[in-house]
Amino acid sequence: MSAVIEIAGLRKTFHTLRQGRRIAVDGFDLLVEAGQVHGFLGPNGSGKTTTLRALLGLVRADAGRMRVLGAESPERLADVAGRVGAIVESPQFFGNFTAHKTLRLLALAGNVPTARVDEVLEQVGLRDRGDERVKGYSLGMKQRLAVASALLKDPQLLILDEPANGLDPAGIREMRDLTRSLAAAGVTVLLSSHILAEIQLICDHVTIISRGRRVAYGPVAEVLAGFDQHQWQVRVAEPERAVELLGRAGLAVTPGPGHLVVTGVVDPELISRTLGEQGLWVRELIPLRPDLESVFLELTGDHPVPALPRQVDGAPPSDGVIDLDVRESREVGA
């Protein structure tokens, strides 16, 4: 696959009267391959939006190299701008204009066929509300309009900063389906969101930024696997006896309310066999896996990663490599 977005060593410092010199982005790297739905995650103030603004030429970087669709940014960004759709932060629209008029003006300004207006309104679920004034729109509807404006050019690369902001659960699901359909059509999507469960459902790759530095990068399944402690939730009729038997077998066991947690066991057969040979039968054996939210909190703060019960089909994770930054994440994110 070819790289659609390349960022290497990006640095950006701001100077303010109140805070003085503040490093927003500190040697940040990002690589997005063609065809990916790539999640870009970071807490508020981590440098995420500054990175997107620098990539799109909206702020000037102090150092680093950036490329979009093979073109140096910002020097040659104009050469590929027609193939890039983006929303960064919360776009502003004229309240007295209708959604249809807003998009028509944007289409004319960008030499886009005006027939695309109805198409993108349909895509984002605003076809029946297109003739209403934007000032009467809810926050979620304005967000849909922003996504529609980014889709006008039928882009090869779509950059979405918090596209689900203000959407209700049904709207979030629709946005998820839209993102999947775009990816299936060959559009590369860079998606930033605070709804981490959605990122885990939609994205195949993820980059996490904290305090201006990259702290994790790789396929979502591989990043999560890097924090897997091989824990199992066990329920038996005699938990105290089970603790004794498993401990005698050299397994790490933690008693819990109504269950046990066994850590460091790759093959659960070891647990059931150890207990079964002594006539103690397992009633429940559930793998405990970290999810993206727990890993995110671990990498960007002082929160431990709790293992969460999650039924899995036992399939191995997808091919890929955990970036070295994942293994060093506790030091980098501290």
TrEMBL record:
Pfam families: ABC_tran. Residues 5-236 form the ABC transporter domain. Transmembrane segments: none annotated. Coiled coil: none annotated. SMART domains: AAA. The keyword Transport applies. One of its GO terms (molecular function) is ATP hydrolysis activity. InterPro entries: AAA+_ATPase, ABC_transporter-like_ATP-bd, ABC_transporter-like_CS, P-loop_NTPase. Keywords: ATP-binding, Nucleotide-binding, Transport. Belongs to the ABC transporter superfamily. This is ATP-binding cassette domain-containing protein. It comes from Micromonospora terminaliae. The lineage of its organism: Bacteria, Bacillati, Actinomycetota, Actinomycetes, Micromonosporales.
